[in-house]
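Q: I'm writing up a methods section and want to include an example of the input and output format. Could you take the sequence below and give the corresponding predicted structure tokens, formatted cleanly so I can copy it straight into the document?
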Amino acid sequence: MNNDINSSNYGEGDASFNAAGGVEGINKLVNAFYDAMETLPQAQHIREMHSQNLDESRDKLTRFLAGWLGGPKLFSEKYGPIRIPVAHRHLSIGPAERDAWLACMQIAINEQPYPQEFRDYFMKQIYVPAERSRNKD
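A: Here is the clean output for your methods example:
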């Protein structure tokens, strides 16, 4: 992982993907995210929205984040176009669910060896797709 990336480069090219440690680093982040979802009391409701086996959810989130962070478009290669609102419309997602999802992501990102500037950048940016998943007030 390249910790020398200047925070002003995040969001440009593959700088964020590299700061996250590439696919391997993103996979660690995603595993920590779902581990947090298993244990965080406020996330119990969103955990119940997922199937018991989280393998596909882990794969989809890893692939989404890889492309979203400027790396290879792994999600669309396997699952087709990314349509965040469409993919989540069968679920009831309001501000509480969005915030519980973000709380799990905050726990997960804090466990990674990322520079604080990248953690801050990531959490600010990940709010956008989290909010796009929301379909109720």
